[in-house]
Structure formats: structure tokens, C-alpha cells
Amino acid sequence: MTIYNYTAQLPDGNEILFSRYKGKILLIVNSASKCGFTPQLKELQQLYDTYKDQGLVVLGFPSDQFLNQEYDDINDTLEFCRTRYGVSFPIFAKTQVKGDEAHPLFTFLTTSQRGLLTENIKWNFTKFLIDRQGRVVKRYAPHIHPAKIIPDIEKLL
């Protein structure tokens, strides 16, 4: 199984197939607009700007499962990310990333790369690096800044 077997919902309600990202390196992150880690959005955008022409795509999945740190309206989330942090990488609809209602994509990600002591996502800004074949290569804890992921991205380029 690869990430290409999954779909996700865009903010406008349309579903996309992840097969559209075949041959790309993906960095998937569950985000929140009102979290202490939110400034990582700027670093994620910098990664995207630096490496997008070489095949990196950053994908943001807002979630309010951790102390409700996301806006209720996805349009407020999009506006916040764009105006405050200059985000231009794709952001999806609000997504459940843990528990019984977790989106199948996040179930796949967390079972492919377990976290410390558990496979569950423990907080906002957990990051997953996906290779060009759609396989989960590595998982990063929320406190790991995107700049620290550069060596792993460059190995995949």
C-alpha cells in the first residue's frame, strides 16, 4: 500500500486522489492556527519555496483535535495561513488525525511510521516524509522544526 491509494478533501469540498502526487516528495503535516508550533508554517513555506521545483510538495491538514486550536471556519484558517505566514502550499479541509474518526490517510501514516511509544498522533505539527514512490519514509515529532528535515529531503531529491 502507498499514499497513492488515498483521497482527501479540499477546503471547497472536492476530493482529490493522492495519485496526483506520484513522483513527488511529500511532507504531510497536521496543523493548527492557534498552537505554539504554528510559526512552523513559515518554515514549512520556506521548505516548499526552496524545493518545490525539485519535486517537494508540503501538504497541510488543519485539525482541531488538540485543545481546539483551529478556527471553526476553514476560510478563516486559509486566510490566517496566507496573510500571517505567506502559505501557498496546499491546505486541505479540517481533518480528524487520531481516534476512531481518523481519516484513513492518517491511519495509514501512523501505522507506517509509529511515534515514540505509540502510533497515535500526540499533537499538532506531527510531520511525515513520503518518498517519490508514495512510501512513508520518516515521522517527525511536533517540536522538530522543518529546517531539521532538510537533510532527509535532500537525500530523496
Give a description of the structure.
With 157 residues, the chain is an alpha+beta fold. The protein has a single domain (3-156), classed as 3-Layer(aba) Sandwich (Glutaredoxin). It has helices at 40-51, 74-85, 104-112, 150-156; strands spanning 7-9, 15-17, 25-31, 56-62, 127-130, 136-140. The strands form two sheets. Strands 4-3-5-6 form a four-stranded mixed beta sheet, sandwiched between helices. A two-stranded antiparallel sheet has the order 1-2. It is globular.
Fraction in beta strands: 15-25%
Poorly predicted residue ranges: none
Mean pLDDT comes to 94
The helical percent reads 25-40%
Q: Which topology does CATH recognise?
A: Glutaredoxin
Number of helices: 4
| Biggest pleated-sheet summary | 4 strands, mixed
Distance between the termini: 22 Å
The coarse silhouette is globular
Under the CATH scheme, which class?
A: Alpha Beta
Topology:
Elements: E1 7-9, E2 15-17, E3 25-31, H1 40-51, E4 56-62, H2 74-85, H3 104-112, E5 127-130, E6 136-140, H4 150-156
Parallel strand pairs: 3-4
Antiparallel strand pairs: 1-2, 3-5, 5-6
Organism: Siminovitchia sediminis
Protein name: Glutathione peroxidase
Keywords: Oxidoreductase, Peroxidase
Give short descriptive properties of this protein.
single chain, 157 residues, alpha+beta, Glutaredoxin, 4-stranded mixed sheet, two-stranded antiparallel ribbon, 4 helices, 25% helix, Thioredoxin-like_sf
Give a quick rundown of the structure:
The protein is of the alpha+beta class and 157 residues long.
